[in-house]
Specification:
three-stranded antiparallel beta sheet, globular, alpha+beta, Arc Repressor Mutant, subunit A, single chain, four-stranded antiparallel beta sheet, 105 residues, transcription regulation
């Protein structure tokens, strides 16, 4: 699926701006790395659906392990989640992959 989304709302007063590679929340901006944008793009293309580990690993253009991917996801959650330990948007599907959801309250 080739989907072009420029801004993805996540909850109240927050969104991912893919064009600027930033996450905005309450007028505060947080820069997103190139790898984080690649992961978020693939997750957004499959919004609400599980994206398997191997598919996410393939978008990073480098040889990394699933445990390395988990580190990337952890860092990303610290940026986009209110409580990274209890994520609302970037959900782990144990043993399979991750799913991105939007506008959950």
């Amino acid at each position: 699926m080739n989907l072009t989304i420029h801004k993805l709302p996540l909850g109240r007063n927050s969104y991912i701006d893919f064009d600027k590679s930033i996450f905005m929340k309450n007028d505060l901006q947080c820069a997103l790395s190139h790898s984080e944008i690649l992961l978020l793009t693939r997750l957004t293309e499959n919004l609400g659906h599980i994206v398997r580990y191997n598919e996410l690993l393939s978008v990073l253009y480098t040889e990394i392990s699933v445990s390395d991917l988990q580190v990337y996801i952890s860092r990303l959650r610290k940026k986009i989640e209110e409580n990274p330990r209890k994520p609302k948007y970037l959900i782990s599907i144990k043993g399979i992959g991750y799913m991105l959801t939007a506008n959950r309250k």
